[in-house]
Amino acid sequence: MAGHSAEGVRERWIALGLSTRPVDRVQAEKALRRAYFCAGLTPPRTFMWFPSPASALIALGAMQAGEQKIFVTDGVRHQIHSQVFLDTIGAFEDRFQKKVGGGVGRDVLVRVRDQVVTRVRSLILRELADQTSDFGGSAMKTFEIEVGSDIYRAITAAPRKLIPNFEVVETFFDLIDIIKSLQTCAWGWSEDYWLAAYEASMRECPTQPPMDVLNRFVSLVQVREQLSIFFPFGDVVLCSENPLVVKRDERDRLHSAEGPAIVYPDGWGVWAWHGVRVLKDVIEHPERLHIADIETEENAEVRRVMIERMGWERFIREAALRPLHSDDWGTLYRKELVGDPEPLMLVKVTNSTPEPDGSYKDYILRVHHELRPLMDGNILGEPQKLTALNAIASTFGLKGDEYKKVLVQT
């Protein structure tokens, strides 16, 4: 029963983190007021709604940069965060978690927390935080180019409507530093891991926390059940709608081969390839990629995706790679990439089975830079001489001589 309870809580929070259901604004505002009240704070009078976290952040940065600082001072902002959120954590730590400090209680905390972090927090929040930190002054024009002018206008529509003199603020303030600092004010996905873990432990532990602590905790859970991300301040809360789409690969990483992996109502989203966030064109227009784009990309993971999206054959051709070794088995290529500690090693091999039209198809495989065979248990074998045969053999977890023997036997 206990294990079922922990598993059920974990799955509920994972589903909540990946939810694309429309937000019930009435219920969300009601839950937020209750959370403030339970923390001993005056409930906010103003709720501002935005179609995406990007839109909310732009509005928040514009308000901070301009004259309309409706969310008062840094001191109150930190007070809100402390009293509504951190005090609740502290109360659980002091009064409740001591009772589950060992044994199954601690086990449940760690298991549920880690699962939710892996499947929800790391999956989405990091990508959102990275991308929203790109906004600001001159960066906004680059952002407009990346996502398209139509989406850009949609994202800025709500801030333009809600923030007086937004156009003036946008032209002479660089928002990037402001927006980076305001990311710490976001609440929602980032709290899933501890809310889920505490809920699981609470279900496992026969001793319940004091009623005031329980009320505050439940109020936070109810807020999170309504909203994925929002920005709470003294008298105003900026709320974002949920995403319309969240796409993942078979390993639960953000991924889409045709468009954004996360899409919000205003069109803003995150483009990702097997968990690596990339620019829109890498996914939607790989034909526009050039070798110069790849060679100047500083992030090794993004560069790998760009090459994969360009296509190995085209990459070899446009990078003007010369064969490192060639034999009857295939052709081996090597490419040094700036900033990458390991060279890129590719082997080109022709399929021995003809296609229906009688032609023979070429395949290009990426291999270990030392041609180490990948064996069972993800264990790497010993380095091999850099030959095409050894490269092909390494993809089967074998050394070159072993691979030849297998072919002879079959």
Low-confidence stretches: 134-139
How many helices? The count is 17
How many structurally independent domains? Answer: 3
How many E strands?
14
Shape: elongated
Structural class: alpha+beta
What percentage of the residues does DSSP assign to strands (E)?
5-15%
Helical residue percent band? 40-55%
Rg is 26 Å
Largest sheet, order of strands side by side? 1-4-3-2
Mean pLDDT: 80
Largest sheet: 4 strands, mixed
N-C termini distance:
52 Å
Topology:
Layout: H1 2-17, H2 25-38, E1 46-50, H3 53-65, H4 74-96, H5 104-132, H6 137-147, H7 149-162, H8 166-172, H9 176-182, E2 187-188, H10 192-204, H11 211-226, E3 229-232, E4 236-240, E5 245-246, E6 262-263, E7 269-273, E8 276-278, H12 280-284, H13 291-296, H14 300-310, H15 312-318, E9 323-327, E10 330-335, E11 344-350, E12 362-367, E13 374-375, E14 379-380, H16 388-394, H17 400-409
Parallel strand pairs: 1-4
Antiparallel strand pairs: 2-3, 3-4, 5-6, 6-7, 7-8, 9-10, 10-11, 11-12, 13-14
Helix pairs in contact: 1-5, 1-10, 2-11, 3-7, 3-9, 4-11, 5-10, 6-7, 14-15, 16-17
